[in-house]
Amino acid sequence: MMRNVYEIGPMLCPKRSSRMKVIAFITNIGTVDQIIYYFELTFVAGKPPLASVFEQVAIMEAEERADYF
After folding, report:
1. Integer distance in angstroms from the first to the last C-alpha of the chain?
2. Euclidean distance between CA atoms 21 and 68, whole angstroms
3. How far is residue 7's CA from residue 1's CA, in Å, rounded to a whole number?
4. Could you tell me the pTM of the whole model?
5. Distance (Å, rounded) from C-alpha 41 to C-alpha 66?
6. Residue 66's pLDDT band (boundaries 50, 70, 90)?
7. SS3 of 19, please?
């Protein structure tokens, strides 16, 4: 969706233009709030999508490259 809507590759490194890989998902809203506070970010995070959405994206990415973790 991000690629289609915002015309950015969410899995491309902005510094090196190389492909990144998902290493973790933060699904606890309290943890997300702590990270936002720690880095002094100015936006308010909404509730993250369901964990099943993240799992499906990870599976699709792995199947695309035939890498399983």
Report:
1. 23
2. 12
3. 9
4. 0.37
5. 36
6. low
7. strand
